[in-house]
Amino acid sequence: MNDEHEMLADDTPRYLPVHVPRKKKLSRSDDDRIFLGLCGGIGERFNVEPTLVRILFILSILIGGWGLLLYVFAAMLIPKSSINTITNVKEQISIRRINSKILLGGTLMLVGFFFTFNIYGIIQYFTFVGIPPTTFWSFVIIGSGVFIFTRSAEYPQMIPCKSFQREQSNRRIAGVCGGLAFYLNVDTNMCRMLWIIFSFVTLGVGLVLYLILWLMLPQKELLNE
Amino acid sequence: MNRIRTILVSAGLIFVGLFILAVDYNFYEIDYKSVLEYLFLFWGVVLVLTSMNDNSRGLLFLGSLIFMAGIVLLVINEFEILNPLKIVLPSVLLSFGAAFFLLFVQNHKEKVFLFTSIILFGISILLIVLLKDHQLYNIANRVSFLILEFWPILLTLIGLGVMLNRNYR
Predict the structure, then answer these.
(1) What is d(CA A14, CA B96) in angstroms, rounded to the nearest whole number?
(2) N or C: which end of chain B has fewer CB within 10 A?
(3) What's the CA gap between A50 and B36, in Å, rounded?
(4) What is the pTM of this model?
(5) Could you report the predicted ipTM of this complex, rounded to two decimals?
(6) Residue A5 CB coordination number (10 Å)
(7) How far is CA A199 from the centre of its chain?
């Protein structure tokens, strides 16, 4: 046994260099982040879509607000990643835009849920981490003010398009909302939904306006044509 | 984002948060609505003035809508109107008309915005002057009332739409 061991020691190195991939440490993502990068970090570590983690966190705020507190504590404990996984600037900008959409959509949903509960009288059962809802909302508003102030400089300015045309590639009916969204540099779906609500409220004035714009506006040519 | 706009918008939000806290803890008593209307006017002016020069058309449109909403709130709260619901529909049309008109002011080449705003102004004036007792007008006001009642559900749907449509254009 001993001889055998010595022979092994003579011919081959004792510890073979086996390339086992090192387990990624759980850290806060610097590339894919909205607030502190915790959801992005969890997504990267467990190979899950970060959006799903974010949606879970947003929904957890409704359960007494404890999810928000958990987020803050976890962010304090988990260190920030020092490695930038995404080096491509275009990809970084794209991720930031998607993240800002998630933030906007999530905030709208949260506010919507809260006031829907208020309509049905369920809100009286909700307290946020033991504090009353109005106090919670005041902190949310102050936080969003601080967030806008600190983060707005990071988002690059977009150069808007020069003319209002009907979109050919991004359209549902005639591409009017797609064209308007492109001209205003806003989310197309939001533009469409607002147009539908506007048409509904004004008993079809929006629909008539849509038809007029369909006739008046030129159609944008496709890029590959 | 324009630096001045960022400072003013975020300062406004921080002020609102602090104000709600102060009212909540009984530092002073004041009606939320009266502060909200002036804040809407303030944000509207800030967004319109700062977006006019730096090509932020989305914010210009939003700013003009917020400003008009502030005016409507001011009229409803400060003046005695027998039936405030009657002014909802013309206000919506006037607000959107004003927003489209400002888009034309920002870019004179887009005559389509001027045309759209004229149509909207025309319909709202028509509703106020000619069709004020028409059945259709009453139905429209009832629909507007429903929207005002159930706006949180619409807000949730819009949020869901923005979240699901994540791919950039």
Answers:
(1) 78
(2) C
(3) 36
(4) 0.74
(5) 0.81
(6) 10
(7) 29
